[in-house]
Write a structure and sequence with these properties.
The chain is α+β, with helices and mostly antiparallel strands. It contains 13 helices and 23 strands. The strands form 7 sheets. Strands 3-9-10-16-13-12-11 form a 7-stranded mixed beta sheet, sandwiched between helices. A hairpin with a 6-residue loop joins strand 14 and strand 15. The chain is globular, with a radius of gyration of 25 Å. It binds adenosine-5'-triphosphate.
């Protein structure tokens, strides 16, 4: 197996953390993210993704899939449904245990999750914001209910899945047999999950509808530690490879009182942002818990027989579970920079240093002037050629400097400028986003040059 190269886009020197308001504003202004149902006043914890947002999401998803499923011969993918049999959620423990305990401040009316309160506030029953008295904890189940069927009285109550990974356990036996997978092997999935979060907020960080990615890796119990360590490192390197500020990434080991009863250990990969160090992805030791529970509740034997030794056992599981939305948010926070005026750019600029692999628009083609027919037609023909290979913009409105800045702000890694020299010698200028360096290249060499930079390897 190969892991992706660790490419540093910028120096690792730390810069001030970006306030979330800047990201929210850029997202709305440039078409990354909008509040859902905004014309009706919005719904807390639910968002829509605009034209650039959907491109970025697709790139994040595809890159994850490529590096998890495509690069690893012993991993395959599935796409399970959001709605399942309701017994699934009894077996998983969600109906009984998927709860948050919540307190309200009697004074400022703010609401807190008990597990997020600092210990001293919990002990003293004191609001961490205004010091007011807190209410007794109340318990909320996070599962969203829905109904299958049309006849009143015969409708079956079920749930929108609270975590996407359950489908992997449900399909485990089918995948193992139909794909002739032998242990150790993994199943990946990306899909929507729904939680009635009691404290949604911090923009995309905690939503009520969001998208998760999971790997469930099935192993012989004797090899559990080896594979746990392997995937833990693999996932850390994956995140490190797509951010600029490597020092904002770390592992956090779960304390003994956080661990599930079956877990020998668990780690969060955390990122530091305006909300401090918070989870990006969890690496979990699930042992035989999930397959045993589903065997017990469904009555189906989900054990595995080793083809050589004939040993029969319930496979143990290493889980890596993260999210598309949190990745989206953290990538924007990591990439955003307001550069002051300098020798290179006299006005200063806002720039998204997104990895070229993930940037929503890969290249913008810009004729130097829009009133020169030959410049425009040459630029349009270059754009037509490039857009078949990658997401490419064409822009001829405003001065070239303003057009560069517009592209910098959305993270476009390359701009191609068609000028008068192009008409003489069939070369163009390629301007690179981060260093604002420019090189001259023949039009014929352009597709190869750009593909080399924007395709993941
Ligand atoms: P938390 O403790 O923050 O509630 P969790 O431990 O319940 O998170 P998991 O159930 O392990 O989270 O979910 C796996 C991943 O799904 C998280 O690492 C995160 O990236 C993402 N995720 C979980 N809840 C949300 C949410 N409400 N909104 C957006 N992403 C989420």
């Amino acid at each position: 197996m190969t892991q992706t190269e660790d490419k540093t886009l910028l120096s690792t020197e730390d810069t001030p953390l970006v306030p979330i308001e800047k990201i929210v504003s850029l997202c709305k202004r440039r078409g990354y993210v909008y509040p859902n149902s905004e014309i009706y006043g919005g719904v807390s914890g639910i968002y829509d993704f605009g034209p650039l947002g959907v491109e970025l999401r697709n790139n994040i998803r595809r890159y994850w899939w490529w590096s998890m499923v495509q690069l690893n011969d012993n991993v395959v993918g599935i796409e399970g449904n959001i709605i399942t049999h309701p017994r699934v959620w009894e077996a998983s423990g969600h109906v009984e245990n998927f709860v948050d305990r919540l307190v309200d401040c009697k004074n400022c009316k703010r609401r807190f999750r008990v597990d997020h309160l600092p210990a001293e506030n919990l002990e003293q029953n004191k609001c961490p914001v205004c010091g007011g008295e807190l209410t007794e904890p109340r318990t909320f189940n996070l599962m969203m209910e829905t109904y299958i069927g049309v006849v009143e009285g015969e409708r079956m109550k079920t749930y929108l899945r609270g975590e996407a990974c359950q489908n992997i356990y449900l399909d485990y036996d089918n995948v193992q047999k139909s794909s002739r997978m032998q242990i150790p092997f993994g199943i990946c999935q990306i899909g929507k999950a729904f939680r009635n979060e009691v404290t949604p907020g911090n923009f995309l960080f905690r939503q009520r509808e969001f998208e998760q990615w999971d790997l469930q890796f099935f192993v012989h119990p004797s090899e559990m530690q080896k594979w746990f360590d392997f995937w833990k490192e693999y996932r850390f390197e994956w995140y490190k490879g797509i951010i600029n500020h490597k020092d904002r990434l770390r592992f956090r080991a779960h304390a003994p009182d956080e661990l599930a009863h079956y877990a020998k250990q668990a780690f969060d990969i955390e990122y530091r942002s305006f909300i401090g160090w918070q989870e990006w992805e969890g690496i979990h030791w699930r042992q035989d818990w999930d397959l045993s529970r589903h065997s017990q509740f469904s009555g189906q034997d989900l054990s595995y027989t080793d083809p050589e030794t004939k040993e029969r056992y319930i496979p143990w599981i290493v889980e890596t579970s993260g999210g598309v939305d949190r990745t989206f948010l953290y990538l924007l926070l990591d990439a955003y920079e307001e550069e002051p005026p300098s020798g290179k750019d006299k006005e200063g600029r806002t720039v998204l240093h997104l990895h070229p692999w993930l940037a929503p628009v890969k290249v913008a083609v810009l004729p130097l002037q829009r009133n020169k027919e030959e410049l425009v037609s040459t630029a349009k023909s270059i754009h037509n050629r490039l857009k078949r290979l990658m997401v490419a913009d064409y822009d001829d409105v405003a001065s070239i400097g303003r057009r560069y800045r517009r592209q910098d702000e959305i993270g476009t890694p390359f701009c191609v400028t068609v000028d008068f020299k192009t008409l003489e010698d069939q070369t163009v200028t390629i301007r690179e986003r981060d260093g604002m360096t420019q090189i001259r290249l023949a039009i014929n060499e352009l597709p190869g040059y750009l593909l080399e930079k924007v395709m993941w390897r």
